[in-house]
Amino acid sequence: MEKTPVDVKSFGKVAVLMGGRSAEREVSLMSGTGVLQALRAKGVDAHAFDPAERDIGELKRDGFQRCFIALHGRFGEDGTVQGALELQGIPYTGPGVMASAVAMDKLMTKRIWIAEGLPTPAWRQVRSAADTRAAFEALGAPMIVKPVREGSTIGLTKVTRIDQCDAAYALAAKQDPMVMCEQFIAGDEVTCPVLGTGAQAQALPVIRIVAPDGNYDYQNKYFTDDTKYLVPCGLPAGEEAAIQLLVLKAFQTLDCRGWARADVMIDAATRKPYLLEINTSPGMTGHSLVPMSARAAGISYEDLCVRLLAAAALDNA
Known about the structure:
single chain, alpha+beta, Rossmann fold, D-amino Acid Aminotransferase, Chain A, domain 1, Dna Ligase, domain 1, six-stranded antiparallel β-sheet, four-stranded antiparallel β-sheet, 11 helices, ligase, magnesium
């Protein structure tokens, strides 16, 4: 991908939003710290800003002219912060209010993808442990039970027996009153970032994820070195290109801009890819996947941060 020279002084005073109030606060602080250091290394006048500790309205008062959103989960990735920044007229990284809100809601995301003819595993919305057992009967084993509006596999359970349904529902409902069950797709787990907006959006190299015992949970995502990330992904060239095209369509159907990362499962038997979800404020930690994919495309971590900040925008500008 071509590098475009950027005058970092034109960014003005920049806030890196990190921390926040979601269950992913710890990871957000790790992401934000990395972004802050990278932007400062490139000469950007960047400052940490934690919305859990300071009123978001202080951004305008304190003269911030642009925001890099390194928040994850609710109150950061779900359109709420984006809306607050729209009201203050401060451009921000990543998708806008509607795209962020929709993408945070896994059920709404699936409904749109299905309407657009994009493949995603079968699912059921559940409101009780009894609903979860009924979903298990309908979807079969294994089945994934997870909160609708949470990320980083928090509150997620892979259910293989019906007697596990009650505990799985309780765990997910503790994170979000909206819970869903999803058909488990056995096969290769991959992820693919997208950079850019509209017709200029481009999919980066696909990463294949090989987790211990196939368990890519919160611990294996962020706090161990046991998970293997393969880039180049080792898939046939035609398969990788098809996944990149699918992810690009998933990004565009939700009207995303700036960047995002979509997670995909490839059915081992049919080799058909299925979209799981899309992350509109992906991690930027030492274990994170967008920087890893960007490096494979010749984009350094620091250049990626600057590029994302340069693309900061408003929905209603």
